[in-house]
Design goal:
This is Glucose 1-dehydrogenase 2. The chain is α/β, with parallel strands linked by helices and about 260 residues long. The chain has a single domain (about 10-255), classed as NAD(P)-binding Rossmann-like Domain (Rossmann fold), CATH 3.40.50. The protein is about 40% helix and about 15% strand. The protein is built from eight helices and seven strands. The protein has helices spanning about 20-30, 55-60, 75-85, 110-135, 160-180, 205-210, 215-220, 230-240, and strands at about 10-15, 35-40, 65-70, 90-95, 145, 185-190, 250-255. Strands 3-2-1-4-5-6-7 form a seven-stranded parallel beta sheet, with helices on both faces. α2 links the parallel β2 (about 35-40) and β3. α3 (about 75-85) packs parallel to α4 and α4 runs parallel beside α5. The longest helix has 28 residues, at about 110-135. Bound molecules: 1,4-dihydronicotinamide adenine dinucleotide. 1,4-dihydronicotinamide adenine dinucleotide binds near residues 19, 42 and 47.
């Protein structure tokens, strides 16, 4: 089969949550495609150890920098986007950082609700806002890609607090795409399904058992959990010129999880 091979030489890409998991892979794929990558995260080290993402990109011959960032803090996002000016300015903003807190709606603590919404929803809203303003100020419209989820559409057990953030990501993406279309800035989202990363925490024993039994994976028509490598190319496609007529889209990369 043929292969799409978008190139991002001369482009500067920010990937939030780029230290681990999906963000790490996305950052590395952009780096491999020639982009200068700013890896933004709370921490440099991947959650499961190993070489920090920006160093891995540089070891492979690319250009990358780590920028310590808490996406729940708008000032941090502003400093991050400003840092891209050292490389000619931001072309592609990947708002990917996210967290998971499982647990029943009957007893979730208010601080936990606020924390997950601050990172997953507020972080994406302000990531989009700051990136768009910077692109417009420089008269250099680019692409914004947010990480949504199958949870943007579908409720899952003991996940109200998480699912509601991902529902917000879907509508931030669509609303921003509508408003920014006339400026030339495209805003899209990737909606991964069950991807093997270090994301999950806080589920009850019952929910953990369900996950351990692979109940979520059992209903994937393609028959397996996904990997970050499966998801990365969707970001490159949405950022590329091949997607120049695509905006407001939420692209499922889920092995068919949501088709029934
Ligand atoms: P992960 O836990 O492996 O990576 C998330 C990264 O985000 C970590 O490096 C973490 O330090 C960083 N991060 C967390 N809070 C942050 C903050 N306030 N500021 C900056 N960085 C922060 O998780 P994964 O799976 O790679 O998740 C990435 C995105 O994909 C998230 O938005 C998640 O909701 C989404 N997603 C994941 C799925 C999965 O099955 N793993 C499925 C659908 C969506």
């Amino acid at each position: 089969m043929g292969q799409l091979n978008p190139q991002f030489t001369d482009d500067t890409v920010i990937v939030t949550g780029g230290a681990s998991g999906i963000g790490r892979e996305v950052a590395q794929q952009f780096g491999g495609a020639g982009a200068t990558v700013l890896v933004a995260d709370l921490r440099e080290e991947p959650k499961n150890g190993g070489t920090p993402t920006h160093e891995a990109i540089e070891e492979d011959g690319g250009t990358a920098e780590f920028v310590e960032t808490d996406v729940s803090d708008r000032d941090d996002i502003a400093a991050l986007v400003e840092a891209a000016h050292d490389y000619g300015g931001l072309d592609v903003m990947v708002n990917n950082a996210g967290m998971f807190i499982g647990g029943s709606i009957l007893d979730l603590e208010p601080e936990e609700f606020e924390r997950i919404h601050s990172v997953n929803a507020k972080g994406i809203y302000f990531g989009t806002q700051v990136a768009a303003n910077d692109m417009l100020k420089r008269e250099d419209p680019g692409a914004i890609i947010n990480t949504a989820s199958i949870s943007s559409h579908y409720a899952q057990f003991e996940q109200v607090q998480y699912d509601s953030t991902k529902g917000a990501v879907r509508m931030i993406t669509r609303g921003a795409a509508l408003e920014l279309a006339e400026t030339g800035i495209r805003v899209n989202a990737v909606a991964p399904g069950q991807i093997a990363t270090e994301l999950d925490e806080g589920w009850s024993e019952e929910a953990t058992q369900k996950a351990a039994n692979d109940e979520l994976v059992k209903r994937v028509p393609l028959g397996r959990a996904g990997t970050p490598e499966d998801v990365g190319p969707a970001y490159l496609y949405l950022a590329s010129e091949q997607a120049s007529y695509v905006t407001g889209e939420l692209l499922f990369v889920d092995g068919g999880w949501q088709v029934f």
